[in-house]
From TrEMBL:
<dbReference type="GO" id="GO:0005506">
    <property type="term" value="F:iron ion binding"/>
</dbReference>
<dbReference type="Pfam" id="PF01592">
    <property type="entry name" value="NifU_N"/>
</dbReference>
<protein>
    <submittedName>
        <fullName>SUF system NifU family Fe-S cluster assembly protein</fullName>
    </submittedName>
</protein>
<dbReference type="InterPro" id="IPR002871">
    <property type="entry name" value="NIF_FeS_clus_asmbl_NifU_N"/>
</dbReference>
<comment type="similarity">
    <text>Belongs to the NifU family.</text>
</comment>
<dbReference type="GO" id="GO:0016226">
    <property type="term" value="P:iron-sulfur cluster assembly"/>
</dbReference>
<feature type="domain" description="NIF system FeS cluster assembly NifU N-terminal">
    <location>
        <begin position="7"/>
        <end position="129"/>
    </location>
</feature>
<dbReference type="GO" id="GO:0051536">
    <property type="term" value="F:iron-sulfur cluster binding"/>
</dbReference>
Amino acid sequence: MDLNDIYTQVILENSRNPRNKRTLEAPDIKEPGHNPSCGDEIVLELKYDEDKNKITDAAFTGHGCAISQAATSVMCDEIVGKTLEEAKEMAKIYIAMIKREDVSDEDLEKIGDAAAFQNISNMPQRVKCALLSWKTLEEVIEKDEK
């Protein structure tokens, strides 16, 4: 099995069974995200530790295509246990990867399974779907920093 097969498997598994598609009890942050070009909609929910240093849980609700749902579920997995600064850096790397900007192998390691979405950049009509959750995460962090 080559890397592309593994990546395809990650995307398929997370679109069929998005582990993080649920509602959190008393989330610290609840942020809607919407992709008007295709109708994908999510509501990202995050919980922080008491010092507000680390993300302790992440989940989402909403609807959309397999790519948006899988990307959101994988993102939720990858950001749990991370600081807001680390999550912000991960979002920056992921967005750069999808936009076909230069991303090092070291950077790809930082985003874990989210690297499975790298080939989405070859499908222009799916780029916004793959970016929805990560851009929503960026908005959450920006609001939080203000």
